[in-house]
Amino acid sequence: MEAVAIRSTASSEPPLMGGGSQPALQSQPAGGRTHRWLRLHRAEFRATLIGLVSLAVFVALWQYLTANRITLYVRFLNIPTPVDVLGRAVIALHNPVFGDHVLISCRRILLGFLLAGGIAVPFGLLMGRYRILREIAFPICEVLRPIPAIAWVPMAIMLWPTNEGSIVFITFLGSFFPILINTLQGMASVDPVLVRAARCLGAREAAVFREVYLPASLPQIFTGLTVGMGVAWVSLIAAEMISGQFGIGYFTWEAYSLVQYSDIALGMITIGLLGLASSFAIRIVGRLVMPWVAPR
Amino acid sequence: MAEKSRGLIEVRDFCLRYETMEGAVEAVSNVSLTVQPGEFVSIIGPSGCGKSTLLNALAGFLKPSSGRVTVDGETISGPSADRGMIFQQYSLFPWMTVRENVEFGLKMRGIRRGERERQARTLLGLAGLTPFEDYYPDRLSGGMKQRVGIVRALATGPRILLLDEPFGALDAQTRLIMQQILTNMWQRLKISVLFVTHDLDEAIFLSDRVYVMTARPGSIKAEIVVPLQRPRQPAMTLSSEFLGLRRGLMSLIREESIRAMGGEVSAEAMKGLAIDLEGQDLAALL
Ligand SMILES: Nc1ncnc2c1ncn2[C@@H]1O[C@H](COP(=O)(O)OP(=O)(O)OP(=O)(O)O)[C@@H](O)[C@H]1O
Ligand SMILES: [Mg+2]
Question: Which of A116, A168, A203, A269 could form a disulfide with A198 if both were Cys (CB 3.0 to 4.6 A apart)?
Fold first, then answer.
């Protein structure tokens, strides 16, 4: 059977291939597109549903513990209920000052994070490619890396003429190292066979860098960006709480000083949502930049 | 031939030593071989005998420790699109679609996008890959990946094609089909092919000549001419001529493969092994 199939390609000249080719493509049932879509996305529906339920349970539990002022060693006495927080949120959304706090924090994150990415990624790529750069920069990085960004606060205040400058600097520092380290790791794990394949096809140094090392490192770079964004928020909030005027971290801390307990929770939830939104944004960009990586 | 030679491979007294912590390891020792322009030549030998090393030197990734490696009289100084290579591992760029992979070599040559696309489409059509041109490689089967790899290597019009056990990871059926595709492309393009394999049948079926290498440090143990007429058909693998060649090759390789496998095994045990293997398919063990 098989011998016959091969003989037919051997004797007839034009088609260079023999094997069966297009199976999956033509077998699409006409009307079943929505059905198919539903079937392929079943897992996502399930995850969303369960996620919503678990969030609802969390809020319900919170409401129960706080409304009944439960005290089980941990004291829920002064903790605001979700309903209180929602009330404050409605008020805050009508108050332009709250919006300003959020916008200022976002601006700081954006500046610090973009600076970090804009420097750490190219720097990491070059360090990954050229050993001499690695040898020079690595020791410095290794010493600076373990220092948490918050520990830089006093130094940052001395270094920068404005408060704004020092907060952006702290945010920058927080995200710089995760991005750098991941970029380096991405470069180190580039499959050498792909580099050799490119060179066999006529690629020179610059082309190998652009066409192989860069795209091969992208998934790891995006991991670095995601982690870096998380650390940027941590650093920003800490910096705002310590030295800030304005910003959502400052808002949260000030709420405590002013005995506005609901605002504390509101600030925290806002920070959580902003962090969520920013890592989501990075994921979206990642998908656009790396269409070959299966979404997961 | 009086025409300008295209794809004459000459290897003379080629030696290659790897420097390691334990000192220099001689991987290939005094190999001399020739591939005439347009010839299909296979290299067969036990695992670790230096086949990949030899191919890597021909591709331009390794410098000979001594001896000479030339193509059309020119000493190889580095990798070049003149010498296409198919690696033992899959090596398509995962971030490029099938068509972009095929276009890559043309892009490196500075050919414009439109022209590039046109040429890549033509080649993919010839290889029956048109329905998959927008796929990313991780959606392709192993056989299809190697098929794209071959098309990609041929797209720049190399003088020679080096293949390092390209079908080693494929099942028997796919292997047969790939062999047929490779033969067709080779006949059509008239380029020189140096093909490394573990598989006796594959070597005989595809080649004009077969070099047999010794266990490490690899050198040429024998050279066998395959007089089978072309076009070759799978049925030929059952002909007495084919089987005779196969028997000859197998006995040449037997000692080497046992030597490669049983470096530390006593002579007594090796004798037992040799008896056990008598009459069995040694190719599976190579
Ligand atoms: N970078 C290296 N450093 C030291 N020794 C090496 C290196 N690369 C290969 N060798 C050794 O050189 C010998 C030849 O290796 P090579 O990969 O060329 O063998 P091969 O014939 O292709 O084997 P296989 O059939 O298993 O692919 C092996 O014994 C291997 O251990
Ligand atoms: Mg090998």
Answer: A203
